[in-house]
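Structure ticket #2291
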Amino acid sequence: MTPFATRSIHACAAPAERYFRTSQQSPGAGTARRLALLLTHAQNMQVSQVAYDRFVLELPPADASWRPLADPEVLAETAAWLWDFGPNPLIAVVGVEGAAPKWLAAWNPRGVRWAPAGASSGAAVTLAKRTDLERFLSEGAPHERTVLLWPRVSEAKTFEALALGNEAAWLKTVDGHAKIQRAGEVFEVHQVNG
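Resolution: structure written out below.
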């Protein structure tokens, strides 16, 4: 198996001490905790480290009667992994055509000039608690044009950069970002070094 191979809880042959479950009982902040959380595996999802600074969180595929972000256990584990990836709170940017969708109103969205690919504008919100992230992921599914940001210094600096309308500006203000793909089943997470 190569170092970048996907490992799931069902087929993991690595020593058990290398993997930990995300939970509120996780140890305090630190490098070892962060690496352990990045390699966390839940029963229903796979996490792959595909490069030094890039991770892919993949949920099981939806079928006619089941959607991963509608399943409370999968939703909770996904939100826990994303929440523990970087500094909190998170900022979510949803690509929109015209006005922000009604489900987003609970977070008081701000219009920003930068928009995820395929959208003409963006609506950005702050997700202050992990439960906010869970609710956001559930209510906004399938998240075809959603990006999550982990602000480095403050949300205000990231919102200022988003208002400028170019990716280079907001990349300087975040520790990481995630693109949500395949109808909310894949989260491609990038750490930003610098």
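Closing remark: The two ends are 31 Å apart (CA to CA).
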